[in-house]
Amino acid sequence: MQKAFETKAKFGQHRKAHFTEIHGGFVSQVVFINFDWIGESVEFLPKKAVVKVTTAQELQKVVDQILAKSSDEFSDIGAMINNNELNFYENCKKWGLDEDWITRFYCGRKAGHGISCGYIALELIEGIEARYQYDCVKEPAFLDILKMATNIHSRAILNPDIVNEISRNVPETVYAQLFSAESTQSVLNTILIDEPQKKDQIERINKFAQIYDHLERERAIKMETCPMKLLCHGDFTIANFLWHQVDNVLKPKIALDWQMCHIGNPLTDLARLFAISLSPEDLKNRRDFYLEFYFEELKKEAFPKELPWESKEKFIEAFEKTFPIEMVIVTSMLVPIVDAMLRTCPESKKEKTAKEFRRKLYGILDVCEEFIEKFY
């Protein structure tokens, strides 16, 4: 950190570091640092920071809940995820991303080559709020997030060289190692324990899920629906933003968790965003309005370059084809960990929140089924 801050100051005896599980993600721990700098010009140094640590052990915890699968075969995934996010923070300014909604990056360390876990040190932002996968977002906040999405997705349209600066498609690599058609189908079948009336729907979706054993077919559809590879967040949901109140209106302030950032199909970002962040009613009834808003904003961000889709109608069709490919497997990841996600929910609200979250997941499957029947 001395190198990052260009200082010879040292930590004093009142330095502190602590973490709380509630602030960590499912594959990382977050440590809060009070530096207590001693030396010259310490008034110019940050007094606090957030240090994010990603390890294979943290990943194992969530995989145990979803699949009960040993981590021996993917011990390098924690390092890969850490290094991928570190690469993002080291390059995001050069790529032209809007700095107003990206946390200030201090320094970091790669994992691998004898280092069991890396870290990323970021600015600690005060006065913010969190939202979680079980929450829903409304306008105008959702429109603000869509504008953020267009800023991300337009970068590689304006600067195609970006595609050479992210070497691996991390989500594709992780999913290929952890998930399969069988594991997805097995999880979805558990829904029938409490919802036996969904038997026909689950059978149709499980038949579609066979695509997860045919990576080249999945890639071909994603290339068909977006012929241009663009910069993607990879886990673009309501939970991966910090929020603040502006004139008593909740607005997104910072986009977080770039571990899954990759070069690929931006419609996968939109699928996650719409599915996890909107209520089932808005996902069904406001979807096309939000897609049209995104399309027009992306045209502005990418000007004077052409978009990957020749028309708004082709874009919406491409989204509909991509949605079940992304969300069938994502939903199968969320179903087993509903209770774990509620660790951030007040005890008095857990029962109601769990019910609403499951209703959201079932709404996602309804939309998946709609598009599977339409295109597949």
UniProtKB/TrEMBL annotation:
Source domain of life: Eukaryota
Gene3D superfamilies tied to this protein: 3.90.1200.10
InterPro entries named in the record: CHK_kinase-like, Dhs-27, Kinase-like_dom_sf, Oxido-Kinase-like_Enzymes
Residue stretches making up the CHK kinase-like domain: 119-304
One Pfam family it belongs to: DUF1679
Protein name as it appears in the record: CHK kinase-like domain-containing protein
Species for this entry: Mesorhabditis belari
